[in-house]
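Troubleshooting entry. The earlier prediction with nicotinamide-adenine-dinucleotide gave an output that would not parse, so I re-checked the input for stray whitespace and re-submitted. Clean input:
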Amino acid sequence: MIDLLQNCTKKDIFKILLQCIEYSFLKIIYSLKMSDINVLKNTVKSTVIKEMSEMGHEQIVFCYDKPTGLKAIIAIHDTTLGPALGGTRIWDYATEEEALQDALRLSRGMTFKNAISGLNLGGGKAVIIGDASKIKSEAFFRRFGQFIDSLGGKYITAEDVNMTTEDIENIAKETKHVTGMPQEKGGSGDPSPVTAYGVYMGMKAAAKHAFGSDRLAGKKIAVQGVGHVGSYLVDYLVKEKAEIYITDIFEEKLNAVAQKTGATIVSSDVYSLDVDIYAPCALGATINDESINKLQCRVIAGAANNQLADEKKHGEILRKKGVVYAPDFVINAGGVTNCYAEFTGKNNSDEVYSLTRNIYDTTLNILKKADQDGITPHEAALELALKRISNASKVKENY
Ligand code: NAD
């Protein structure tokens, strides 16, 4: 090597030195990249599995299809009571992590909802990542249907936010593990009217607990989100002659509902409104660190899933404030009861409404239990749901 260098000009030696430095840098950068990727891979793996074990999930399926652009996550939380049934939500999530969190929380909520409603169903949920106004096509939903079918019936889907019966029909072209088919095709149709009826029953029970009467006439009620469920809920409240305030991010929907029902449109902060009842019917986590201190209402009863950003902390603050909170997963179970009827082939609307009416008694019992045990209504409801799951798993152990 020394002999070789002795025969080189100064310029050649300088060139060789430069190449050596460049090579070392590349080596460092390359090794850094590899280690970074490994750390990242391990972090992702351990975070997802850690979260699954902490929240009690059985299976998470990540779906991707290049030709249609489908990006979806199917979360199966618990199948002790039966196959995991829960709708598919389409949302333009800011990050994949946000989508995963939503899928994890929503599927867990479905386990408790199905358990407390007495349905022989486990809990699951799917989220599709993207802008619902741009991504939909027949091929897109058929591909999603194939992913659902590959689970062999462990997960059954239905409608949730931004999904229509037409989308459900396209999914059904590829799998039989789907509910919420249009009524004219023998299905149970849009579950939203039944969900709204259940929320109305839960709201009346919570009003009885808080005010001593379930009459809503003259009560000031703020409905946040007048989409599928919110608009049907407003119809029930109009019939009771409640004083209704509505809010939505879509002006068109807001104006249509106000025109039809005479409800007052609210342009200010909905949380600070001086109302008796707040009905969250948009998205989850609206009861959070920011909103909770603004709330003036005595009752919270709405359709949205996962209303409490932190179930323990915010549930406890509400209890101390004397706000009666009707647990979301108890009172918004009308829709899944409707889907269950379709799934079991007992698609009878009268029976579904009669079963959904039970939400009134269930809510009252939970609110009483919470007061007696000095716990939050969310905890009281959770206790009952978990008891049913635990009893069922004991029975299964005997086989
Ligand atoms: P939807 O999409 O038809 O309605 C939601 C409405 O909320 C929309 O009009 C939307 O513009 C509005 N909205 C969104 N963000 C808002 C905000 N920050 N402020 C005010 N309005 C806002 O959905 P949906 O089917 O009516 O469901 C409503 C909620 O109820 C969801 O959380 C859903 O998961 C839950 N839920 C629905 C059903 C059902 O049968 N559809 C069953 C159980 C639970």
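This one parsed fine. Residues 227 and 253 are 7 Å apart (CA to CA).
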